[in-house]
Structure formats: C-alpha cells, structure tokens
Amino acid sequence: xxxxxxxxxxxxxxxxxxxxxxxxxxxxxxxxxxxxxxxxxxxxxxxxxxxxxxxxxxxxxxxxxxxxxxxxxxxxxxxxxxxxxxxxxxxxxxxxxxxxxxxxxxxxxxxxxxxxxxxxxxxxxxxxxxxxxxxxxxxxxxxxxxxxxxxxxxxxxxxxxxxxxxxxxxxxxxxxxxxxxxxxxxxxxxxxxxxxxxxxxxxxxxxxxxxxxxxxxxxxxxxxxxxxxxxxxxxxxxxxxxxxxxxxxxxxxxxxxxxxxxxxxxxxxxxxxxxxxxxxxxxxxxxxxxxxxxxxxxxxxxxxxxxxxxxxxxxxxxxxx
Length: 321
Fold this sequence. Notes:
Blueprint: E1 6-9, E2 20-25, E3 28-31, E4 40-43, E5 48-53, E6 78-82, E7 93-97, H1 108-111, E8 113-119, E9 122-123, E10 129-131, E11 135-138, H2 144-151, H3 171-175, H4 180-188, E12 191-194, H5 198-206, H6 219-225, E13 257-259, E14 269-270, E15 280-284, E16 300-304, E17 312-313, E18 317-320
Parallel strand pairs: 10-14, 13-17
Antiparallel strand pairs: 1-3, 2-3, 2-5, 4-5, 6-7, 6-8, 8-11, 9-10, 11-18, 12-18, 13-15, 15-16
C-alpha cells in the first residue's frame, strides 16, 4: 500500500533522503513513502516519469537536481589531443589538464584539438545500470574541421563551417576499418576510440543528475543548454555556445542526433550494450528541428549503418587501455 502521499507543485525540487518515488509531469511531483524496490517506468517522451530511488546516504541534491558533492579531482580529468598536423601526421600529441581553462575553451579546442573529459565509473542516478570502468567522452560534438583534419575531407555540403558539428557521415565512416575512430586510435595511441554505447552516452549526459534536461526540468533549463526547434531557426549551431552539463560536457541534447555504438540496449545491469551486429544503431539526444520529446537524456532514434544523414553527428569516446 502506498501511504503518506504528498502533492507538491514546485518548480524544481529534489530530495534523496530515504526511499523515494517521483512522478514528474512537467513541474508536478508526487512523493510516496512506501513502494516495492527496483520499480521503474519511463514515459518521459510524453512528459511522464515514475521512478524509484533509494538515494545515497548523505548526498545533497540541489533544487535543479545537480549533486553538490563536487567534481572529480584528477590530474588527467581532460585529455587534449593535438590534431593540427592533420591526416598526414604519423602521431598526434596528447596532453592532460586537471581543470578546464579559467578563460574557457578556445576555438582551437573545437577545431585543431580534440578535448575529452574523463567519466568516472559508477551507477546510473536512476539505479538502472552501472558503468564499471572509467572512460573519456568528447566535451564537444565532433566538428567539421576536426573531421577534415583527421580524415582529409569535409563531407558537409550545406552549412559548411569549421565549428559546426560534422554531419553526412555514416556509422561505417566513423567505425569502419579506415574510419575516424580507428585512425584516431592509431595516431593517438592511448586507447581505443569508438562511438559511446547508449549507456555510456546517457551516463555522461545525465552527469549524476535525475532531472529531465541537463540542468533541470523547465523550458528555461532546456533553452540554456540545448538548440531545439523553438530556438535554433532549424539551423545547426557552433558547438559549445550553450551551457554545459554538470560535468562540463556541451550539447548533449539538440544540435545533431549523436550516433551511438549499439541498438536497443536494455539499459539494465553492468555495462549494458545492445545489438551491434544488425543494420541499424541508436542515435541520442535530438537535433535542432526536434521538440522536447526528443531533446532530453532519453531521446532516441534509429538509423541505418551505411547511410549518411544531415541531422546525424557524433561525439567520440575513448575506452582506456
């Protein structure tokens, strides 16, 4: 029996004290005091989510859903790969940063360098799955200039600009034997570059939060972090102009759909991965002509492995040796 129902209409309020059930329909939250464990139903594409979360003892969560426990301290928090010598280089120089630059990331970080952020192993904040090993994920969607430097040619025909996300590249162009990921793996020589799995992508997108969008649940929150159909004019935008998520990763929602490694992942258990042998793979996060039903952590769309598409891009991930 559910008991102690409390009806709360409050713009952005979150707690993790003890057993929690949250039913979110826009800004309406229901909290219950008792329900069986491990129950989760997700219908967020329609603005509805029912979930259970036992919480983390002692954790403090802000009114916008972000953990206040602090960011990771690591001398290799950011991996920076210098790709300025282009496709003819035998090796790319790799360096590391413990913090983001105080003056912010530069144009070079979006064009002649690749910047990746370490993501620490842990559990999904909604308690569905876990990631058992640290990995890196690019803080920006791969840009046209980055693709051109590594692969030798910009495939984009319309909206050709160095700092726009690259599109018109297929899954095979990224993951094939002579594709972007294997070329970068060979020249950087620090691990295996690949598309993130859907679980890796969502884990980095949520950045330890339970809110619907990167910084909260409201229209204002999505406008602050995402290019979508109400603020983009239907045109791709330069990467990194909006606010990042809690882990300093930009444009995880909107701008372009981001290709992932697998298809139809269960999103349950340890390191879940869906089908990688079929003819399609998942894309996450929505794009500039999509609404809020697509531009959130759980936004998904499938696509063919061989066909390039103008609204599909990607961000690269690095699986450590």
